[in-house]
Amino acid sequence: MSTYPDAPGHRHVDTSMAAADALAPKLGRLQRMTETAIREAGWIGLTADELAATLGMDRWSIQPRTSELRRKGLILDSGRRRPNATGKMAIVWVAT
Question: What is the C-alpha to C-alpha distance for residues 5 and 67, in angstroms, rounded to an integer?
């Protein structure tokens, strides 16, 4: 059995566990798409909102992939911040 970050995380609540189970078959593909987009952005990097827009996907489906990829050592926090859709400052992710 795979564990986080190779399997979706959940909060040990039935609805969260069901969502993680539903996502599990797609996780590898979503992580690869996320990593590729960040890698292709180069030193400019991407915030979670920019990443979701680039991939044409919902931010809520993509943002958790950044945590997983960071844990795997494939991306890192650039130290830079840009405003997200709410105007709050967001991490700019870059490939390692």
Answer: 8
Tokens of 14: 């039935």
* Contact assessment for residue 51 and residue 68, using Cβ atoms and an 8 Å cutoff: no
What pTM, to 2 d.p., does this model score?
0.77
CATH topology of domain 29-95: Arc Repressor Mutant, subunit A (1.10.10)
Confidence at 28, pLDDT banded by 50, 70, 90: confident
Domain ranges of the chain: 29-95
pLDDT of the residue at 30: 87
C-alpha torsion 9→47→45→69, nearest 10: 0
